[in-house]
Design goal:
Length: 200
């Protein structure tokens, strides 16, 4: 039952925001009593904390699955972005903005975990792109990784509208890729942007 409550809570938090959803809403959606929820979670903050941990794991399992498909480095980043877009596309308000505004301690704990995992993913992507000839070999990898995740976290934590956050993320991805790309990388970036426009 605990896992079912977290799954439903995560779904509602992503759809309607961390602040908007109450314990009553979750109980009503699941056709259970609020008392049942409190049996597993002493308050909403604990439920949010455990739900964000589950979301964090699910996100990185999805990223690992994309990496295993062995796309080229630039397409890989676009596929990861598409996965995030599908996951967070159900609501108007950015869930990460709400989390930062109303539950800052949980937000900063989540960001701390994300930084470690994103560090590894972004660095591997840069190394892959260099091997493929899509990124320049002289890139200061650690600095570029830090630039990119700082941009992404800043966008998500400070942009109220989910739609605007996603538009800014695409601009950040273009900016990040162009900063690293060889001529072959620019051609691949333009191909991905053309496909992105068709899919919109």
């Amino acid at each position: 039952m605990k896992e079912k409550i977290m799954a439903k809570a995560s779904e509602l938090f992503l759809k309607l925001g961390f602040k908007s959803i109450t314990m009553d809403d979750i109980a009503s959606e699941m056709c259970i009593s609020k008392k049942t929820i409190y049996k597993y979670f002493c308050n909403k903050e604990v439920l949010i904390e455990e739900s964000t941990e589950v979301m964090h794991k699910e996100v990185h399992q999805s990223i690992d699955a994309i990496v295993k498909k062995n796309y080229n480095a630039i397409q890989e980043n676009f596929e990861i972005r598409k996965m995030f877009k599908e996951m967070f596309n159900s609501g108007d308000t950015s869930p990460m903005y709400q989390l930062k505004k109303h539950y800052p301690e949980i937000y900063y704990n989540l960001v701390s975990r994300e930084v470690n995992d994103c560090n590894a993913v972004f660095k591997q992507n840069i190394e892959k792109g260099i091997k493929e000839g899509l990124y320049r070999p002289d890139i200061p990898k650690e600095a570029y990784v830090r630039f990119y995740y700082t941009l992404i976290f800043d966008i998500n934590g400070n942009t109220v509208s989910e739609k605007e956050a996603q538009e800014l993320e695409l601009e950040a991805l273009k900016y990040h890729t162009r900063a690293m790309a060889t001529l072959a990388g620019i051609i691949e970036l333009e191909r991905q942007l053309d496909e992105h426009t068709i899919l919109q």
